[in-house]
Write a structure and sequence with these properties.
By secondary structure, this protein is α/β, with parallel strands linked by helices. The protein contains nine helices and nine strands. Helices cover about 40% and strands about 15% of the residues. The radius of gyration is 28 Å and the shape is globular.
């Protein structure tokens, strides 16, 4: 090969290498730009979802104030606040679905331990019966109490730091009131299947939140009365609730095996016919993207007329 041919080949090879590098850089730049655009679009969509969720909070607050305006009225599932909302197109391209849940119609896990740090025996027995009604092991009540109470002395069937520290990796129980029912998944052996069965019937609220019998679930009502009567007649319970609060406190009293126990039960769990704490669960969809939202709402009480947002969370 002569010198001219060799030079031409080297030049061609150099040009090919430069073209390959340029193409690679162009592809990388295009990919990075596309990713940046998608990130920006995704961030904008999530921000839009947050704004829609905030607007839905305003609608929920209006419905709750309507239901709670009269301090002497009951709060129940036949009122407008309890109806699912949507799906409805809030703005072009964005659909919103939402529902309000009365969190005081569930068993408050923080009621298991009194303000003085001692276990609430009536609350424990109620939770044990609720677990049995859901075909779960009643000993989880002791495990949950030990997770919440401040001491390091395990109850019979419970577990404290002496147990959790031996796990791999080791950790400590919370030893404080919980802010989310999902904390149960941190308890040794409490798996996702158990949590899914129990979650619709429990809440994590301040100790003094109370329990609204008008919206309590059938298995929880059975746990209060000690009889399998409400969940076994779910259709009848639903029909009675279409007309208003059911069961009223007096009806629940008469359903107990020993009606004289009602006052102790009412004191231990704060039984009532009204509520202050609500969960707003929402879903915003736009094209192929979807965002879930959760807001914890609290009614500030008679005369205040205000619904306060205590917690807000939005996620893809």
């Amino acid at each position: 090969m002569n010198t001219h041919s060799r030079s031409t080949g080297i030049a061609l090879l150099t040009a090919l290498i430069v073209l390959a590098i340029t193409s690679a850089l162009a592809y990388a730049l295009s990919a990075e730009t596309g990713l940046a655009i998608r990130r920006t679009a995704g961030g904008a969509a999530q921000e839009q979802a947050r704004e829609i969720s905030a607007a839905t909070e305003a609608v929920a607050a209006s419905l709750l104030k309507e239901a709670l305006e009269d301090p002497n009225s009951t709060l129940h599932g036949a009122q407008r606040w309890a109806r699912p909302y949507g799906p409805v197109e809030i703005i072009p391209g964005y659909l919103m679905e939402a529902r309000l849940d009365d969190l005081q119609g569930r068993f408050n896990l923080n009621a298991l331990v009194s303000a003085d740090g001692r276990p609430n025996d009536i609350a424990r027995r109620t939770l044990e019966r609720l677990l049995q009604n859901l075909e779960l092991e009643p000993q989880w009540a002791a495990m949950i109490i030990d997770w919440i109470d401040a001491d390091d002395q395990p109850l019979d069937g419970g577990a404290e730091v002496s147990r959790y520290s031996t796990l791999t990796p080791g950790y400590r129980p919370a030893n404080r009131i919980i802010t989310s029912t999902s904390e149960l998944l941190a308890i040794e052996g409490f798996d996702l299947d158990r949590y899914r069965r129990l979650e619709p019937h429990i809440s994590a609220l301040p100790r003094d939140a109370g329990l609204n019998v008008c919206t309590a679930t059938g298995p929880l009502l059975d746990a209060l009365s000690g009889e399998r009567q409400w969940s076994s007649a779910a259709d009848g319970l639903q029909r009675n609730r279409e007309a208003g609060c059911f069961p009223r406190l007096e009806v629940l009293r008469n359903s107990l095996r020993d009606p004289t126990e009602f006052d102790a039960l009412r004191s231990a769990l704060g039984l009532s016919e009204r509520s202050r704490y609500f969960g707003l669960f929402g879903y915003v969809s736009s094209g192929r993207s979807g965002y879930t939202s959760y807001s914890l709402l609290r009614h500030e009480g008679p005369g205040a007329g205000q619904i306060r947002v205590l917690l807000r969370h939005t996620a893809p």
